Amino acid sequence: MKKTLRIATRKSPLAMWQAEFVKSELEKAYPGLQVELLPMSTKGDKILDVPLAKIGGKGLFTKELEDRMMAGEADIAVHSMKDVPMELPEGFALGAILERHAPTDAFVSNQYASFEDLPQGAVLGTSSLRRKAQLMALRPDLIVKDLRGNVGTRLGKLDAGEYDAIVLATSGLQRLGLDERIRHELSPETCLPAVTQGTLGIEYFSKDQEVFDLIQVLNHPQTQIRTTAERAMNHRLEGGCQVPIGVFAELEGEHIYVRGLVGTLDGSRILRSEIRGLAADAQQLGVQLAEALLEQGAKQILDEVYADDLHKG
Ligand SMILES: NCc1[nH]cc(CCC(=O)O)c1CC(=O)O
């Protein structure tokens, strides 16, 4: 049996929490095992003055970790599944999907108790096209300003008065012990979550059977099924992580219920669809859901989003 396992991770406080979490879960499961962290920055962490949607490129948060694995310095990488591209580079695979944490988005404000309480023309901060499209659809009067940086930076900008409120992942705040900053969670009806939001995944070398066997203790089959459906929808829509696409799968016994949406950047149009079926058909149901959205005109909306990105460079 392996004596040590090395984890490549981003070094933001949130990513470090996630890697530490996996380390402690593995050490609990295997008392003889020693787990080491290898923290590093990625392109997505370094370029902070450009909206994420404009940096583009697959694997913005994952490529450097894979490079370190290739160099033989790490055995696995821990990722927020939300940041993992739909297709991994040759030789890599996802070996375990952990039990999902909160999938929702959180409303955070020092002045207002809820999203509904925001006054006319309030300034809302978010870095996500998906949040922007859905929240502007509900409140076209809001001024949405871009908000980048790690969780602490984003809260700091709110506290400095740059925004009346911000919206960010509930799971990120909870992991960092910042629950008390959450005024409320946005319901899926208000803001459908991002693909796999709140889910952690472990990437490994697909040939490394020993590592695969080791990390199976952390795999959560129900979350894995939800992840399969959500990623299948995103993949069929050819959506990267920076697109106005929401998708949320829930298990109902043997069945799975999946909701999806595609929105224009200004929220003036939101296409919605949903599907139910056997959980065993998660992959196929995700694809069907994407196809229902494409039939409603999702391709045209997404093409416009991508063209807009190119023009603004
Ligand atoms: N886009 C960055 C990112 N990637 C994953 C999370 C949250 C944690 C998760 O989804 O597990 C966040 C922060 C956010 O969206 O506010």
UniProtKB/TrEMBL annotation:
In the record's cofactor note, how is the cofactor described as bound? Binds 1 dipyrromethane group covalently.
The protein's required cofactor(s) are namely: dipyrromethane
- Show where the Porphobilinogen deaminase N-terminal domain sits: 5-211
Pathway it works in? Porphyrin-containing compound metabolism; protoporphyrin-IX biosynthesis; coproporphyrinogen-III from 5-aminolevulinate: step 2/4
Start and end of every Porphobilinogen deaminase C-terminal domain? 226-294
Question: Which UniProt keywords are given for this protein, alphabetically ordered?
Answer: Porphyrin biosynthesis, Transferase
What are this entry's molecular-function GO terms? hydroxymethylbilane synthase activity
Entry-annotated residues carrying S-(dipyrrolylmethanemethyl)cysteine: 241
| Reaction(s) this enzyme catalyzes, per UniProt | 4 porphobilinogen + H2O = hydroxymethylbilane + 4 NH4(+)
The stretch of residues making up the signal peptide is: none
What family is it from? Belongs to the HMBS family.
Known function: Tetrapolymerization of the monopyrrole PBG into the hydroxymethylbilane pre-uroporphyrinogen in several discrete steps.
Subunit annotation: Monomer.
Q: What else is known?
A: The porphobilinogen subunits are added to the dipyrromethane group.
Name of this chain's protein: Porphobilinogen deaminase
Which organism is this protein's natural source? Answer: Thiomicrorhabdus heinhorstiae
